[in-house]
Amino acid sequence: MTDYSLLLPIFAYLLITLIVARVAARRSQSSGQFSERYFLGGQFMGGTLLALALVTTYTSASSFIGGPGAAYKFGLGWVLLAIIQVPVAMLTLGVVGPKLWQIAKQYNAVTVLDVLQHRYQSRTLLWLAGISLVGAFIGMVVVQFTGGARLLSVMTGVDYSVGLAMFVGTVMLYTLWGGFRAVSYTDALQGVIMVIGMIALFVGLLIKGGGMVNLTSQLQQIDPALLTPKGPNEFLSWPFLLSFWVLVCFGTIGLPHTAIRAMAVKDGKSLKQAMVFGTAVSFVVILLPHLCGVLGRVLIPELSSPDEIIPRLMVTLFPPMVGGLLLAAPMAAIMSSVDSMLLQSASTLVRDLVMRNKTLSEPQQRAFSYASVLILALGCGLLALDPPQMIVWLNLTAFGMLQAVFLWPVVLGLFWPKATAAGAIAGIVVGGGSFLFWTTTKIKPLGVHAIVPALLLSACAFVLVSLLSKPRQQLA
Known about the structure:
476 residues; 0% strand; 20 helices; Sodium/glucose cotransporter; mainly alpha; single chain; globular
């Protein structure tokens, strides 16, 4: 049965995001081509805005739905996995951030693929990277749509397909409405909501459960393995733990949907501020949802899907109107990831793959950009109609594929003068190919996640081929 007392605050929140998007869109710069304004919007971000936009883009349905669901199932060991994500803002902005900002300013780069094209001058590399980006982002957007629809379905009682339509429609509207600048401001708003919502949920859980000591003692009675690093049946082995840290921390350096935020920062001071503030925000929005996931098993011992734990806690712990307001926190995480991925995918199709081969007028740029966002959003929505049981696995597969393709071309391209286009192509083919092979066959070399050997092989191929080939161009 549909709970309209929950739907009212949800509709209010969705309306606010549309208003913020519209206001931000009107503040967009009027200079430059439409594609430049729509997909980047100039270097306008201050430290606070950059930190919130970066963290909300990185955290997603996996952090608020899939991750807590895994913590519910595997215990505190999964929380140990999750918190390694906390330094992501520091790593992204501290390692590649300054270089990307300088390149965006000097070469008028709008996307990460712009950076790769300026660095390597290779159409083959551009197409490989572009196809990989769009394919991985489609998988990740399907995950986000699934998480958003499940939230609405579990909390309000609406049919899953109705919740999916509401979620897809809202994200699509405000992404179309304002482009990158509007998305950045709505992401900042969503970041504030995420922090407030997760603190409120965690405090409510502790009060209802009688405190941390009582909750952990009851977890001990349910299954002592839930309090160990390896979890039930020692599922979380040390090779898995270590390789997962590579997947969700080190490998995230240079990911397209987070790196582009550094390209939009207004100055070096703002970049440094965002590193500190972004790390603090990451700590709250990553640690608390996962703790709620594992501790929530005491209050809700049986679920049809572990991914339902966060929305179920909101329904259980709070009155309907308050629960509807808290729902905005995980919804904010999901929406802020989806809008960035839709824009990045559309910019790849329009700027990187179409406009490099054909000159488009201003109206054509607008039409191609809007059509790309619309088709991608609707296509992912259709794929989300038949969701997987635990969305965390699909998200991690797409996430790992992005890393296998982009990590070394971005990092070595920025910092190693001898990096060549041939080396980058070799790294993409070997890294992406080996990752897909080991993932689809479920083979774990030496017990580690596929991302570890894939990145190692990719690095070896990149370096070896680069040393045997001649660089075409170097960026200052």
